[in-house]
Amino acid sequence: MKSFRKLLLPALSLAMPASLAFAQGGGSADPNLLASASAGDARAQLELAMAYERGQATPPDYEQAALWLKKSAAQSLPDAEFELAYLYRHGLGVAHDDALAAALYLQAADKGLPAAEFNLGLLYDRGEGVARDYARAAAWYGKAADQGVAQAEGNLGSLYLAGHGAKQDAGEAAKWFLKAAAASDAQAEYNLALLYRQGNGVAQDNTQAALWYRKAADQGLAQAQNDLGALYEHGSGVPQDFAAAADWYGKAAAQGLAEAQFNLALRYALGQGVAHDDARAAELFLQAADQGFARAQNNLGTLYEHGAGVPHDDALAAQWYRKAAEQGHAAAEFNLGRLYSIGRGVAHDDAEAWFWFNASAEQSAGAQREQAEQARGEIEKRLSPAELARLRERARQLLATGAQAGS
What is the mean pLDDT of residues 256-262? Predict the structure, then answer.
């Protein structure tokens, strides 16, 4: 299942014309505002701090912003407490301090500031500056959600979906995602699409999934663009359209999403929705492979082995197969074993060939498993009982390591 990510609300935006804070055409503070702030006016101190923070007519000066925010927050102005927390959270003009940020968010949240309620919930959700406490995260998200903070509604849905801080309830999660999506929250739109795609908490409906993916994709959410491309590729919830699939994969790939780079590379390799172009496929496989995407690493190895879109190079093929095989990719394990068995790109080594054929067989099913088992059986005929015993122990350790990592 794809992750249901949470978003950090940006610093509270205060509508304030620059002329309030700085003299016309210059970098000095407006004398009247500075006088009011110096006289202890909490709102003037906040406005002056925000002008320094946002660089209105001068470069940003976070130290000055923090100085005036401290004065304003000391008078319990919730907006100042929130803004000062934001500076501590990000180490701007002050030393980074999540615990102090949490304390300041609490002060502002206790006064009903919705952005502070949300960010305090986020800190409890992540265990940053406070001990992780999903129940408290849910409580603060709930307070912010009651005031219409869309990100809080979406994150509350995520907690219900995971059963964190509340009883697991996909239907309740869908309700909160829908509230946030109605406010055009892109992540909530995406999460709602996932629920419709999976039939989790709502009736399975690919048409609804496509609708919500499209809303999130139109807002530039890369994973939604990729997943919408997949619906067009397979004709699920939308008419099958390889060109549209390639277009959406391209939008997500341009944002650096490895899965989309892989999917677009396949379109070029197959000539689906775009002109066949092995060189372009290789470029895209490389982009995804460099991010550790195992399927792209295996496919890039195949291109090097066959000289398709790249110069033929068995050594590079072996290197890319190994990167994918070490992540447990069954086809790459088989391919690496095959190269060891024939001594191409690597020195001939029956023991290594057996090891990788065995790893592939253990993770495969159907025809692929039979092929790996057959190849392993042929190699076994050339190995001594002692070698086989050593290899089986190595395979057992690999399996145990993988099980531990999976847990």
Answer: 98
